[in-house]
Write a structure and sequence with these properties.
alpha+beta; multifunctional enzyme; Beta Polymerase, domain 2; EC 3.1.4.-; nucleotidyltransferase; EC 2.7.7.59; 42 helices; Four Helix Bundle (Hemerythrin (Met), subunit A)
């Protein structure tokens, strides 16, 4: 799409510019080589560049044309180069009688060669010189380049004669691609035309297969670098899967083989249908609009559509908020739908060309392949597929014998995927194309057809690779048509740093993770889920629940509740019985419960476990929920699931299991405490009897109930050694590689703000606290167990890191170090996080624990937040029993189990309101300190 002459004239007045430049040289008889004149020329051009670019940006805001914007910038650049070239040869390096060697052609290559430029794009130029050269050519090239550089452009250039162009293009695929797109700008045109003619005959002719194979390999390598999914929530517009480079690759390949100069010519050649070309043009225009807006917004060649830019781009493109979806989410959904279209086009065309020109070089192009498909004349090596009449397999690619196979029996649209899954076949590109053209056959009759639903369920619950097949179903559009509720979340993005993929991609990946767990290929992240999945009574309900668990995202109603309603509607259609449907609905409604409780509740609090057991009600449901939770978290994105989360889930499972099997009532609290003491004493046989008896009296009953046996021993040895060494401060650092955390055990005199000091020390050293258990001994010492996220792979290095943190705590408690002041909101809100808004919410709950008031703080995460929260809690005269820190991308959920100074819950309504106000202020970085206020950390001294 080229701008009109009138449009271009509004952007840059070339005639006036040339006149003004010429006027600069009048006093020097037309000689423009003087440095002062050069400075004046540069100043004039800078003004022109600034004003023309501002005009282009204004037009982009007005008409929204992405390709038009890129073309306008390219045309302006052409005019600037022409003006600079003419000034150089007419006023700086004038030659009255130029020889055949004193000529030059300036060509645009790369993206600039296609006649498109983004605001921050490089200017790629090829200076073509004759075989014989003089210093004149080098001088002119140097003048043009330095002028462009001084104007602020990043210029990529090459200076070659025609023989060098041809020789290098033969040996270097990057140079060959650049010259393929070379476009004449200015200078000696016959020189450019000679180069183009020789390139076509001496390089391109007869080398299609070589070029196609190289470009497809280059594309695959680029995808591996950028991320194999086109549904990453911060996509790279240029290089990412489904981005502009994929469209470029498609056109390069088609242009190289079919010798076309415009995308529209691909329709005439039979490479694209009219509808496919329309998708091509529409996708390219949208991506260019986004890219141009992004460059203008950032003032740099930014290609990554990061969170901090997405909302502003959405506003610039006039997206608005709809119920259940924000403006930015609607914009990104459009983006991913376009990326999906790009994927469809590149997959169909590139794979077809690969099939024909790499594997079958004697073919007659895609049109010929379509004719063979329609006539039913397949290759002699095509073999019928057992159990699939009308289907054949060739080179492990599934295909059909007639293009009416889906019209004859629409259930074949589902059968084709069932066969691909069963035999691990790839899909022939022409079959993929035929499926896309047959989507209208997926009507209400097919959706309610028992055979079609049986085939779909077979794919969904396959023991092979269901993720691969479901993704192919999604890419072809079948999945969203056959399951309309799934279609609503296709390409849907959740504007959150926690979610790495679109909703549909997350659901498909979660099925893949589930399949890996069942096959025992999920590694050692969560051995319990691998063990439990083999004991399930009904694996089908787990797969269906996994597929549907987020299917109601983007609706005004809570997606868990709405999702359960969807399940009750759709499961009978899939062929599930009433009891199975209810189990699926229950799993969806509660699919976040186990993760939430494990990460933000005190798992040593009896009421936490009792309440959770009452919700789950059966051991089979507990197993299902655990496995679903693990797969769900792991499918969110790389690194989201870790050993610590796995450990919390296992702890919750093992604590709940006895309640569901009737074992929880076998032992009273007193019996449990006595047994814990006996077990510990048995491990302390190297202590004296006196020391053992004295130690057992140092802890309150709640400590024995809530602390794991392994940690009881660690604490005992830590306190015993401190007593022997007569130390009042003691620390133990234990790296836990499997859980992905490092445990800090801290013994110190009971101190008003010990947890705040610990949080401050961790903040100062960059450590991230993920959990904390707070205890106090009967003789006035604090015994805190802090878990920080692991950073270093080697245990020795991680142990050394933990010791640095404990040393800082030690020095701070002794008054030798000062911790930093609270982080202000302004300074904390930097980087990607500033793009998000998370409403601060402070919940004060007395029903979650029998002994503690639970404070749940939700807000926007930032450095030093935990430090500020613990400082505020200290000034509120509250005892902290345990702290549980959870981060979900930009959102943090910090939970504290607290009592007042007398060990009682906070029941006074007025005081609860003060707590909410103080903690809300702390989330914003405003901590109200009252050094005079006495604070105690003594925990409740009665058995919980």
């Amino acid at each position: 799409m080229q701008p009109s002459q009138d449009d271009l004239a509004e952007l840059i007045d070339v005639v006036d510019l040339r006149s003004r430049l010429k006027a600069l040289t009048v006093a020097s008889d037309g000689d423009g080589s003087d440095s002062k004149i050069r400075s004046a020329v540069l100043s004039m051009l800078k003004t022109e560049v600034k004003s023309s670019r501002a005009a282009v940006q204004k037009k982009l805001d007005e008409d929204g044309g992405g390709l038009l914007c890129a073309s306008r910038l390219s045309c302006i650049q052409d005019e600037l180069i022409r003006v600079i070239y003419d000034f150089a040869v007419q006023h700086v390096y004038r030659v009255k009688n130029p020889s055949a060697a004193e000529r030059m052609s300036v060509a645009a290559v790369g993206g600039y060669g296609r006649g498109t430029l983004a605001p921050g794009s490089d200017i790629d130029l090829l200076f073509i010189l004759p075989y014989k050269q003089t210093p004149w050519g080098e001088q002119v090239v140097e003048y043009i380049l330095y002028m462009l550089w001084d104007l602020g452009f990043k210029v990529g250039h090459a200076t070659r004669n025609i023989d060098e162009c041809i020789r290098l293009a033969r040996s270097d695929m990057t140079i060959r691609t650049a010259i393929l797109e070379a476009r004449y700008i200015w200078g000696d045109k016959p020189l450019f035309e000679e180069m183009a003619t020789r390139f076509d005959t001496e390089v391109v002719s007869g080398t299609s297969s070589e070029f196609i194979a190289a470009k497809l390999q280059e594309r695959d390598e680029r995808h591996r670098r950028q991320g194999t999914s086109r549904y990453l929530v911060e996509p790279n517009i240029k290089e990412g899967k489904g981005g502009l480079r994929d469209l470029n690759t498609l056109f390069w390949i088609a242009k190289y083989h079919y010798r076309v100069d415009r995308q529209a010519d691909l329709v005439k050649k039979g490479v694209l249908t009219r509808s496919e070309y329309a998708r091509f043009a529409k996708s390219e225009d949208f991506l260019w609009a986004v890219r141009c807006h992004l460059h203008f917004l950032t003032g740099r060649p930014e290609e990554r559509l990061a969170f901090e830019f997405q909302r502003e781009i959405a506003i610039r493109l006039s997206y608005t908020q709809h119920p259940g979806m924000r403006d930015v989410e609607r914009f990104m959904k459009h983006y991913f739908l376009v990326a999906k279209d790009v994927g469809d086009l590149t997959r169909i065309i590139c794979a077809a060309l690969e099939e024909e020109h790499v594997k079958e070089p004697r073919g007659k192009g895609i049109s010929g392949m379509m004719r063979r498909l329609r006539s039913g004349r397949m290759s002699s090596v095509a073999k019928p597929v057992k159990g699939g009449p009308g289907f054949v397999v060739e080179n492990n690619r599934l295909n059909v014998t007639t293009d009416t196979i889906f019209k004859t029996d629409p259930a074949n649209i589902l059968r084709v995927f069932q066969l691909a899954d069963k035999h691990d076949y790839n899909m022939h590109p022409q079959l993929t194309r035929l499926i896309r053209h047959s989507l209208k056959l997926i009507d209400s009759d097919l959706k309610n057809d028992p055979e079609a639903n049986r085939l779909f369920l077979s794919v969904l619950t396959s023991r092979n690779k269901p993720e691969k097949t479901l993704r192919k179903m999604n890419e072809t559009g079948v999945l969203g048509r056959f399951v309309p509720d799934f279609g609503k979340v296709v390409a849907m993005m959740q504007f959150s740093m926690y979610h790495h993929y679109t909703v549909d991609e997350h659901l498909i990946r979660s099925i893949g993770v589930l399949s890996e767990i069942e096959r025992g290929n999920s590694g050692e992240d969560h051995p319990l889920s691998t063990e439990l999945i083999l004991t399930l009574q009904n694996r089908k309900v787990l797969y269906v629940a996994m597929f549907l668990h987020d299917i109601a995202k983007g609706r005004p109603e809570d997606h868990s509740i709405a999702g359960a309603k969807v399940a009750r509607k759709i499961c009978p259609r899939f062929g599930l019985k009433e009891a199975e449907t209810e189990t699926v609905a229950w799993l969806i409604e509660h699919h976040l419960d186990m993760s939430t409780i494990a990460q933000s509740r005190d798992l040593n609090d009896r009421k936490t476990i009792t309440d959770f057991a009452n919700t789950v009600q059966s051991l089979e449901r507990l197993k299902l929920l655990l496995i679903l939770t693990v797969a769900d978290i792991r499918a969110v994105g790389p690194g989201v699931f870790n050993g610590w989360k796995g450990q919390l889930l296992r702890t919750l499972f093992y604590a709940t299991e006895p309640h569901l099997s009737g074992g929880h009532s076998k032992m009273s609290h007193n019996q449990t405490i006595e047994l814990a003491k006996q077990d510990l004493v048995a491990k302390l046989d190297h202590w004296s009897q006196k020391d053992r008896n004295a130690y057992l009296k140092r802890h309150y009953p709640a400590y024995w109930l809530r602390t794991e046996p392994e940690r009881l021993l660690t604490h005992a040895e830590l306190l015993h050694k401190a007593d022997k060494d007569k130390k009042r401060l003691a620390f133990e650092v234990i790296p836990r590689a499997f859980e992905g955390v490092t445990e800090l055990n801290i013994m110190a005199p009971d101190h008003p703000r010990l947890l705040s000091i610990i949080a401050g020390a961790c903040f100062s050293t960059g450590a991230n606290i993920v959990d904390a258990q707070i205890d106090t001994t009967t003789d006035g010492f604090a015994l805190d167990t802090i878990f920080i996220g692991r950073e270093l792979p080697d245990n020795v290095d991680e142990h050394r890191r933990g010791e640095r943190i404990t040393q800082l705590i030690h020095k701070t408690l002794r008054g030798e170090e000062r911790l930093p002041e609270p982080v202000s909101r302004k300074n904390a809100m930097k980087g990607r996080v500033k793009a998000f808004k998370v409403a601060t919410e402070i919940l004060v709950n007395n029903s979650l624990s029998n002994d503690y008031t639970v404070l749940e703080i939700t807000g926007l995460d930032r450095p030093g937040l935990l430090y500020d929260l613990t400082r505020s809690i200290a000034t509120l005269n509250l005892n902290i029993g345990s702290a549980h820190i959870s981060t979900f991308g930009e959102k943090v959920v910090d939970v504290f189990y607290v009592t007042d100074l007398t060990g009682q819950k906070i029941s006074n309504i007025g005081r609860q309101e003060i707590i909410r106000e103080r903690l809300a202020a702390a989330v914003g970085g405003h901590v109200e300190l009252d050094p005079a206020a006495p604070v105690s950390r003594k925990v409740h001294r009665q058995a919980s």
